[in-house]
Amino acid sequence: MNSLKTLLAIILILGSAQAVSSQEAGESDFVYVSDLATAGYEPFAVSSTASASFGMKKGATMYLCFLADNDARSLKRREVIRKSFEEKDAPRTLPNIPVVCVLAQ
Q1: d(CA 39, CA 33)
Q2: CA 105, CA 41: separation in Å to the nearest integer?
Q3: Fewer beta carbons under 10 A from the terminal one: N or C of the chain?
Q4: Which residues, 6 or more positions from 58, have their beta carbon under 8 angstroms from its beta carbon?
Q5: Residues of 42-75 as b/e, b for ≥16 C-beta within 10 angstroms?
C-alpha cells in the first residue's frame, strides 16, 4: 500500500513539473541522510530521475538523496575489507559512504 502511495506521489510531482518549472528554484544546504533519519524522516523509493538513490520524507517535506563518494574512499574500503579476510587482526576502520540529501522544492 505504501508503494502505491509513493508511486502516486511521484506521478503527481512529475505531472506538475511543467507548472513548477516556471518558478524560481530556491537554495538550501545539503543534509546528511543520518541527520534526516535522526530527525524522524522516512526513506522512500524513487525512479532514476535526477540520479537520486532514494528519498527521505517527513510530512510534505521531501529530500532526494545521492551518494557523494569518490574513488579514493571506495578503494580504501575495498582494501580494508580485503585485508580483513586475509589477516586475522587487520584493522577494520574504513571511510564512511557519504550520502547527502537535497531539499526537493
Answers
A1: 10
A2: 16
A3: N
A4: 36, 39, 40, 41, 42
A5: eebebeeeeebeebbbeeeebbbbbeeeeeeeee
Give the tens place of pLDDT for each residue, 1-25: 555 455 444 544 555 444 445 678 8
Sheet of 99-103: strand order equals 31-32, 99-103, 61-67, 54-58, 42-44
* Cα gap 74→95, rounded to integer Å: 8
- Tell the residue number behind the cell numbers 524522516, with chain if given: 41
Task: Give residue 28's Cα distance to chain centre.
Answer: 16
Please give the residue that has the higher pLDDT: either 17 or 88.
88
**CB-based contacts of 37, cutoff 8 Å, min separation 6:** 56
User: How many other C-beta atoms are found inside a 10 Å radius of the C-beta of residue 29?
Assistant: 7
